[in-house]
Amino acid sequence: MVSVMRKATALGNSSGVLLPREWLDKTVVVTLTEPSTDEITNEVVRILLENKFLEDTLGIYMTGSHARKDKISIESDIDILILTNSINKEIKKGKYSIVLISESNLKKSLEENPMYYYPMIYESKTLVNNKLIESYKYIRKLNIKNYITSTKTALEKVKEIISMDKKLGRKKTGDSVAYSLILRLRSFYILKSISNKELWKKEKFLSLIRKITGEEEIYERYNEVKNKNSSKDNTVLIEDAEKIIKYLEKEIEIWERRNKGKKD
User: Per-residue b/e over 2-31, b at no fewer than 16 CB within 10 Å?
Assistant: First the structure.
């Protein structure tokens, strides 16, 4: 068997791979491969140079499913976190989704509400400057008081929507409920994983959803909203939504006790 490595190029509305002419009429197997760590690093540096951000860069880190090696699909973005001296910006370039944040803004965010950046830091794989990111990984106690407060507010809003749906005689509610609940559920699942010194995995999270509701429909609706394909129809069982609300309320109680130094 002869093998060659080629980069796919544009071919009309599709893409193609140029092969030796003598392979014409032969059967060829095309395998999609993920870029290596070096290739990812080189591409990120190229993007930074292109945007004139490289000089302000302190460290470059891969996050998300690629960093966790968690069910990477063709559609998966390559998520990158970049610590800088002063730049705060987001860049989307092809498959690369890049977040640049200054150290001062990162420190402020970690103090006020660590649930956005700390999971990225915890799961990160270093591309450039490991020492810097390691200094942020070991926070003795996460201050999630503000996140708990915002979750309580979000749950009250969801309850109001469900209450209105019930008054209208509906057994199903909308995608906005699915998105809000799954987003919060995922955050508490991540919190528990960090507490257990584990990395979160998509399959484990789906298993948790199945354990709570018996199915994955509400997660699928969350995904549709995330991918900007939400439906105008009510497709989420109110019964499933209420089960997740009940679970989240118990999680809130647990984490409030932990914040006060009490055992579960």
Answer: eeeeeeeeeeeeeeeeeeeeeeeeeeeeee
In the numeric block, which tokens belong to residue 163? 């209450």
Read off the CATH number of the domain in which 73 is found.
Answer: 3.30.460.10
Record the pTM: 0.83
Handedness of CA 154, 156, 159, 165 (dihedral sign): negative
Which two three-digit tokens encode residue 102? 């200054």
DSSP 8-state code for residue 196: T
Instruction: Domain of residue 60: give its range.
Output: 37-137
Sequence-distant (≥ 6) Cβ neighbours of residue 214 within 8 angstroms = 240
Question: How confident is the model over 139-175, as pLDDT tens digits?
Answer: 777 889 999 999 999 999 999 999 999 999 999 999 9
From the list 167, 211, 7, the residue with the least C-alpha distance to 219 is 211
Q: 155 and 236: one domain? A: yes
pLDDT at 264 over 60: no
Domain for residue 21, yes or no?
Answer: no
